[in-house]
# Entry
Amino acid sequence: MAAKAAGADVIIAQGLEAGGHRGSFNTEDMSRSLVGLFALLPAVVDAVKVPVVATGGVADARGVAAALLLGASAVQIGTGLLRTPEAKIASPWADAIGTSLPEDTVPTRAFSGRLGRSIRTAYTEAADKGPIPAPYPIQRNITKAMRTSATDIDRMQAWAGQSAGLTRAEPAAELITDLWSTAKELLNS
Ligand SMILES: Cc1cc2nc3c(=O)[nH]c(=O)nc-3n(C[C@H](O)[C@H](O)[C@H](O)COP(=O)(O)O)c2cc1C
# Structure
């Protein structure tokens, strides 16, 4: 509603499933106000007249079709493109994405001080039991040496969403063309 009041032409509805950092109006309450895309999307679509873009946990044609059926005008894919050669991410990160189950990712402030969803690693697990992370961007600077020199998954900032396991290691153009044609078949069947 704040985006609508500010005159947004398009609104992106980002579910809690999403990989990486997240947009949030209230940074204090961020981790307690996470909503799944299946609940968030129809609520936003019903509340506004501008086009709504669905994002968070969509990584295959079924997800694209479901989001369009729930009222989205478009779908935004993040994690689902990370294993494409164009993304050029480190291979331990790409491999971990390909084998992740939905419960293998966690929202954490441990890398930057801001909430983001990453692969569950030895670092995120240890940080969960340790002191509260410093605010952004201090925590980001504290972890910089570890992140930038990382060669194994336990030191990497391995952002990924809950549908990581659905991602495919294919050129981006092929992947998107196939997602869209299969989604259209699903919607017309
Ligand atoms: C590597 C990576 C970095 C991201 N960084 C940001 C960011 O800085 N700010 C933000 O609002 N969203 C960020 N996102 C979230 C995406 O904009 C998008 O909402 C998300 O990837 C969608 O969910 P999915 O990863 O399940 O497809 C990032 C996502 C990834 C995968």
Observations:
- The mean pLDDT is 95.
- The CA atoms of residues 110 and 131 lie 10 Å apart.
- The helical segments are 2-5, 37-47, 61-69, 91-98, 122-129, 138-142, 144-149, 172-188.
- The chain has one domain: 2-188.
